Structure formats: structure tokens, C-alpha cells
Amino acid sequence: MKKTLMLCAALFSLQSASYAQHKNIYNKNWIDFNKNGKKEVFEDPSQEIEKRVADLISQMTMEEKTCQMATLYGYGRVLKEEMPTAEWKTKVWKDGIANIDEALNSLAYNKKAQTAYSYPFSKHAEAINTLQRWFIEETRMGIPVDFTNEGIHGLCHDRATPLPAPVNIGSTWNKSMVRQAGNIVGREAKALGYTNVYAPILDPARDQRWGRVVECYGENPFHIAELGKQMVLGIQENGVAATLKHFAVYSVPKGGRDGDARTDPHVAWRELHQIHLYPFRRVVQEAAPMGVMSSYNDYDGVPVTGSRYFLTELLREKYGFKGYIVSDSEAVEYLYSKHHVADDYKGAIRQVVEAGLDVRTNFTMPEQYIMPLRELIKEGKIAMKTIDERVAHVLRVKFRLGLFDHPYVQNTKASDQVVHTAKNEAFSAQLSRESLVLLKNEQNLLPLDAKKLKNVLITGPLAAEVNYTTSRYGPSNNPVTSVVDGIRKYLGAAAQVNYVKGCDMIDPNWPESEIIPSPLSDAEQRGIDEAVAQAKQADVIIAVVGEDEKRVGESLTRTGLNLPGRQLQLLMALHATGKPVVMVMVNGQPLTINWENRYIPAILEAWFPGPQSGTIIAETLFGDYNPGGKLPITFPKSVGQLEYNFPFKPASQAGQPSSGNNGYGKTSVNGALYPFGYGLSYTSFEYSNLQVKQTTQQAGSDIEVSVEVKNTGGRKGDDVVQLYLKDLVSSVTTYDSDLRGFERLSLLPGEQKTVKFMLKPDDLSILDKDMNWRVEPGKFRVMIGQSSEDIKLKQEFEIMP
């Protein structure tokens, strides 16, 4: 008994001493992270970051270094406890950790990760501070944690400000609004305790079947680079890191297949650099993101996450990337389990570390990576110099983020007034409005005149659906207004609004029914008949069709692009009534709506708007808002045309000869259903006075282009002025034309504005025969238009030898 009391007293004494020591590490203007009572170089905010990094690494053990090379997933993913426990002293992260992902918060539909700490926002900030405090106070070196989270359409956090899907953001073509969107994401991340946001996705969506088209800005590398740059700048101006996804060549798996495929992109060497790497190069060089995520796939047989060429030679040495590289989840394991370029997992670890990977991420305990890594070091198979380089990349970001100077959320209570404010909510609604694209408006059916309507039918499987508003990697638990509720609220008592679903999202045999048709069941026929009966009594029919959150997204690649299930049959039956039909599309990828485009008089593309979807769609259908979005991706007529994108090489989208020695005939459907950059308006615009001015005719000079745009209609409206460039003669085949500038502007009826563009040498550069970027002498054609096909004005200029 006496021994027990003595042991308890000793433990209490140690705990008290430890508490006092921890309490005393916080000094004026510096923190004693290593708890030795003196200010080290790495603890001194006045020292240069490089000196602080070198000093810290010199004091770290091999165990501490390897812990800075792995991710710990948060509660509900990997962590079993919400808050630190005594057992943590026995875990591998007793020596620290690089980052914690999804801490006390997770994806919208991950029930296992639900926690009492995600909301109110101040409670989450306090909880993150508690986690951070454990690592600072309870580990030997006290290295702060980088708290990471997704954020491609609003921060992936409980009740954060919701933004529309990235394909919506791409459809706005509004650079200033994308900068504001990034600012909101970064500001809310900072207030909640996150220090690193996995956004934006810079993958060019070059195959419309690919499930993650909804998560991309579009198909064109220049368009993606311009918007991605603004998103990064917006996030990082709040002192939060932005991590680009997914480096690289991830978005064109063979046949568009996602899920278990995630490999085998068939991309030529020059196309790799001009299309798939271009957005990453531009954004790294012009916005200096602090993070890049390496992708699952291989390129030409070499897994990207194990490629020194991609991770070191390109990203760091050529592009000048200064942040740290984190793997997509399980990308390291795939070298062994999928790509089979390593005998075992240990061999895969050696490859990725030597290639340039800094931090491994997977939904498993971090020791599964850290322990084999330590063995490789002890066996002399990975040099400590290499480890020091990888750790330095991670620590440098932590210093840049200020984690060694201000590691905690400073004012946790203020978080409740920072996250999801009324102002942010209004911005989110406007961003969704600006993403709407008017695809067809025969005889100006839209906007509808509410005063002339007595009976309105709303039908379709997406009229009352809301799951698309909370799609993957965005905020959750926000109130949602469905389309039917939004229209009912808008019209109030002015008209009778009836709702009939008409058909389900899919039929029981889908997706097999796309290749083997089956007759409608009695229940399906009754659903369509009920909609038709109501349609006969209506003045107008609003059919809300497309895809929901379960039909498009990660691992949800499609084999066909028609409307799923019985939706086309529903539309055909509604059209046969002779009543005007307005088709509202809610979808995450371009659909081959050929019959619909021919016979339905009005089509509004809404993509995946945010939770205010019903309100903004109602405002647009009834004319309170004039749609001005443009398509960021080509709509093909058939999957048989794929790949079909902009830009493309000369004659690659040509028709067929009508006569000649080499055959003729008519065997294919050609042309786009809707081209890149396409979008209509309730008003009209006129372009004039195209001016092209050169300071000199030398290759290094800037080219100033200006054009006047006038609203010639009767409504206020937005237009996106698009500048395309064509290199008329070059040493290698170049694209028929490519986007090199765009500006969205709003004009009152009769108002005119001058839009100016500045073409830089990089805009004129091509990869020559020797794979060097350069501006070749010769003639160039500037084309100004409202889409890639609707060119209004042209003018040429010349670069002299």
C-alpha cells in the first residue's frame, strides 16, 4: 500500500511538472517547442525560414523525421478517439505527424465520422486547438500539425458556405468571383482550424464519360489555369495552403473508366504538356500553391507517384514548386498492389520517396508506412539526405503557414461570425446563378411570364431531389430548396403549381438498360401517364431531368451519356401533349440530349448548383435573372465521337468527303451538340472595332487586343467575351485554335464597354520539334467570339524572325 501511494505521488509529481513545463513553453513572441528553456533558431520568428528549417531538422531524430512524412486521418476514418487520450503516448504519432486530414469532420455521407465537435464552428476551432496543443506540448520537438481538408466547392465541413460544383464554377467564366470563392473557402478554413485545403482540381476533363467531370472546371487548359489560379490566390491570401489535385494525367483513363481502373491514360508526349500539365505549370508559377497531390495513375507505364520525372524534374526543377507533395489516398500502395512495379510494399515506399513524394496518405494507420520507411533507412536503402529533403519540404510549408509562430486559432468564438455568413450565402447564390447556361430558347419561350400562367406542372425525377446539392467534397447539413419548392415559393398564390414525379431517376435494369432496352413496367407507365394527365391541364410544363449525386462523381464513370432510365420517354410523352415544355437539366457531365435538343423548345443547364438551387432556377425561368454562363466543356452528340474536346487539331473534327478517289459516304454523325464556350441569353450582344496593337513585332513583346461589346437587346445581361488564337503556320501541327483570353461583363440595355486583353509570349508559345517552348515567327490570327464556333471578329498580326 505504501509503495502504491509513493508511486501515485511520483506520477502526480511528474504530471504536475509536465503541466508546468508545458505552460511555461509559451513566451512573449516565441514558443519553446523543444522545451529546453532557450530560444532556438527554429523557434525565433525573426529568423529566415530556411535557417529555421535547417536548425529544426538538425535536432530531429530519425523517428521524428519519418513521422513528418505521413498523414493521420481524423476520427471516423482512422482515428478511434475524437480527443487525445493517454494511449496516444504509445502511438507512432508520439513523435509527431505531418498532417491530420478531416479532423473532427468528414464527407457529407460518412455517418461514422459524425461528431459533436463539428458545430457550432467555435467548438470545432477549440477542438482543433486541443489536438494541436497535444502535439506541441506532448511530443519532444513539439512540431505543429498541418490540418488538411477538402474544399473544391466550398469547405468540406458541416454547415460551411456551400458553393456549386466545380463544373458550375467553370461555367461562370468569372475570374473575380472565383477569387472571392477561394477567399471564402480559405477564410472559413482558417476560422475552423484547418491550415491546408485540397483544392482546386486542375484536371482537364477530356472524356465526358469520366465520373469526375463534375469536379473539374472544364476541358480547356487555359480556362482551367485562369480559374485555378484565382482559386489558389483566394485560398492562400488567408494564410491557408492550397493543394492542387491531381498531378498528373489523371483525368483521361482509357475508355473514360474510373473506379478500379484509374490508370492507362493514352496521351501523346506533346499533348501531355500542352493539355494536361499546362494548368499545373501556370498555377504553380503564377500563384505559388503550397501543396500538390500526386495521382493514382501511371503515365506510359510509370506510376506518377513513383516518377522522379513528374514529382522532381517537372514539378520542382522546371515549374519551381516550393511546397510539399502529398499522395492521393492509396497511390503509394498501388505501386505494389495495382501497377506491380515493386515486389512488395516496402519496395513501393522506396520508389516514391526517391521519386520526390513527401507525405503518404491512406485510410490506414500511419505506422503502416512509417515503420517500413524506418526499416529502409536502417538498411541503408534510403539515404538520410533524401529523408531530410522530404521533411524540409513539409516543415517549410508549416513555417510559411505561421504554425511555429501562431499555431492555434486565435479567437475561437469569432469563428461563429466568420463561417457561413449571410453575405457568404448571398455570394454562393450568385455564383450558382452565374453558372446557369441557357442551351435553347425557341421563340423566346423563356423567361416565363408569371402573370399569364394559371396552371404549372413540375415533373421529373430531379424536381424534388436535393442530394446533388451536397455532392462529394463539399459542405454538408445546409438547408436545401428543391426546384419544385423554389418555384412554388416564387409563384405563391399567383398560379396553381402541381408536382408529379413522372419517373424514377433510373429503371431497375440501369445501366444495362442502356445497351439492352426493356419495356416499361406497369408502374413506370402509370407514372408517365399521371404526368401526362396533369400536363394536359397545364399552361406550361417544367421538366427537371438529368443525373443525381449517385449517377456522377468519383468512381461513377458512365458507359452512355443519354438521360438515365425512363426520362426520355417521359419527355416524349409530355411533348406529345402539345403543351410548351421547359427542360431544366441537373447533371454533372455533358449529356447526349439529341432528341431533347430537337424537340424541346427551351433547355436550361443547371449542372449541380448549391442548396439554393430551387430559388435560383425559379428566378431564372421567370426572368428575374438573365442566364449568362457558358459551357466549359463540349457536348457531344454521341459517345462514338469521343474523345471530342476543344482544342483540337486541324480537320480532326471534319466531316466526310462527298466524292473522290479515296471513298465517300455518310456513316457518322459529326459536329458538337453544343460547342465549348456556348451559351445563350435573354438579350443580344454586338461586337465591333477589334484592335490588335503590337509594341514591336519581336517574339518577346506583348500584344494588346481590344474589342467593343454592346447590349443590343432589351434586358440587362452578362456576356463572356472569348479570345481565340490560331498559329497559321508552325514547325509542328498545332491546335486549330485555342482559348487565350476571356472576360465576363454585365451590360445594361444599350450599354457598351471596351474589353481589353494582353497576349503574353507564353500565349503564343508552342512546343517545337525539340520539345522546347518558344514563340515561332509567322502570322497569328486573333478571333473574338461568343463560343469556340461562334466567331464574330478576326484580325491577324505577325511575329518577325
TrEMBL record:
It comes from the Bacteria. Residues 719-788 form the Fibronectin type III-like domain. It comes from Pedobacter steynii. Pfam families: Fn3-like (PF14310), Glyco_hydro_3 (PF00933), Glyco_hydro_3_C (PF01915). SMART domains: Fn3_like. GO terms for biological process: arabinan catabolic process; xylan catabolic process. Gene3D superfamilies: Glycoside hydrolase family 3 C-terminal domain, Glycoside hydrolase, family 3, N-terminal domain, Immunoglobulins. Residues 1-22 form the signal peptide. One of its GO terms (molecular function) is beta-glucosidase activity. The keyword Hydrolase applies. Keywords: Hydrolase, Signal. This is Glycosyl hydrolase. Belongs to the glycosyl hydrolase 3 family.
